[in-house]
Amino acid sequence: MKMSEIAFSTVDWSQVEPTRHAGEEGEATWRTRFFGPQDNQIRVRIVEYSPGYVADHWCSKGHVILCLEGELETTLEDGRVSILTPGMSYQVADGAEAHRSRTTKGAKLFIVD
Predict the structure, then answer these.
(1) What is the pLDDT of residues 55-87, one digit of tens each?
(2) DSSP string covering 43-68
(3) Which parts of the chain fold into alpha helices (H)?
(4) What's the rounded Cα separation, in Å, for the pair 108 and 64?
């Protein structure tokens, strides 16, 4: 990720229009902003997963994820499982390790990708 051509700005996330994304079970609500030039955009999101959410796909996109609230369980394709609780983060590169997320309690995340 190369961060270029991004002027200083602030974001009031409560004013960013949410979009809903169905999971295999439950749903995710995204509040998304894009920064930088079209050919190198950085997507920044606040994502809230409903209790019982299960992703409907394996993801191979790179992310930096910070858990703000709740608890997120992420399973890697090789079977390893990681649990994020508030204040914990994970980072993974594009194409590095496919992962799939779920939560029983619900979770709120800050995600940069």
Answers:
(1) 999 999 999 999 999 999 999 999 999 999 999
(2) EEEEEEEPTT-B-SS-B---EEEEEE
(3) none
(4) 14
Residue with tokens 């030039």: 37
CA neighbor of 52 nearest in space, from 16, 32, 22, 80 = 22
**Distance between the two ends of the chain, CA-based, in angstroms?**
8
What letter represents residue 112's amino acid?
V
Q: What's the pTM?
A: 0.93
Phi, psi (deg, nearest 5) at residue 67:
-80, 120
Q: How far apart are CA 55 and CA 40, in angstroms?
A: 26
The dihedral over CA atoms of 9, 69, 16, 23, expressed in degrees to the nearest 10, equals 130
